[in-house]
Amino acid sequence: MTNALFVLHHSADTRATEFGTLASLAASLNSAGYTSGLFILDTTAASTVTVKAGGVFRKISAVSAGKPVGDGADYLVQAVRKASSDSSVIVALGTVSNRNWGPQVAAAQGAEFLTACETINAGRDGITATAPALGGLVVKTVDLGSKQAVLLYSGEALPAPAFADVEAAVSTDEASEGRVRFVASEALPDTGGIPLRGASKVVAGGLGVGSGDKWRIIEEFAGKVDAAVGASRAAVEMGWVPSSRQVGFSGQKVSPDVYVAIGISGAVHHLAGIGGAKKIVAINKDPDASIFKVSDVAIVGDYEHILAAAMRKL
Ligand SMILES: Cc1cc2nc3c(=O)[nH]c(=O)nc-3n(C[C@H](O)[C@H](O)[C@H](O)COP(=O)(O)OP(=O)(O)OC[C@H]3O[C@@H](n4cnc5c(N)ncnc54)[C@H](O)[C@@H]3O)c2cc1C
Q: For the Electron transfer flavoprotein alpha subunit C-terminal domain, which residue ranges apply (predicted)?
């Protein structure tokens, strides 16, 4: 069985780079003899989905639950299991939603599960993937061979391969009552603006920003320099910024031309997300902050004064 199923949880926020990244991974698996399909879990209520570079997939199906399921992992587990019955490998992006159903599908199918994959490669002997281990201190390479596996990809955005876009019809797949029922959840909406994945400039804030009210300074500065907003996990956990903006080991990996870290100490878990940045500019009031060990430009001082001065010049 060498079928690979790519799963996309599709909402109004889904970006072309997400289609492109999955299509690129599919193209590389196809060249190693896999047959790739795409399964779209659609929550937009549209009747069709345009899949960028969709021609790379032999089969595309798109379903919507027909009734509200929130982030109902139980529904997603059922839907993905049904769609992946003839697939040895399931690949999805390392989003919060996918991290919800991914391990459950793997456990139900007795498959290997690997999250935060930085690379996924296929060869004659099957699949190898790399992912951070030991809290992001090392990168492990896992030889999965031809084992069944569920892989969540959190590496860099990949360019869409040169395949035609495909229009896929969305069918309704009535959610059956599961044993686990969705009750309620409240997700902070994304901040909007430039998406983090694939951004050429990122302005990221950490706990040193000080409060949710002051977070608007980070957004204002990012807006002035046309950068995507990023955040440390500590800032996300304070509820200042949605988790879709988290950079690091358990967030997104970014590889911009310039990464500006503001009030971020430089913990290994954060650094695990910015290894691909070409230039790092750090603003921190502590001259011994670890972030300065990896930064190209170090600015010691209170970020509010520094950004105010910078914005006066812009
Ligand atoms: C399994 C695991 C996964 C994790 N994944 C992630 C992840 O994906 N991403 C992530 O970021 N973290 C992650 N973490 C958490 C990580 O270890 C750190 O706790 C976190 O990155 C710290 O965030 P911070 O730098 O914003 O806060 P702090 O470490 O508290 O740093 C705040 C910094 O702000 C500076 N500062 C304070 N006031 C000012 C001011 N006025 N002007 C300028 N500077 C100021 C301080 O000097 C300090 O250096 C993970 C942890 C674990 C255990």
A: 196-274
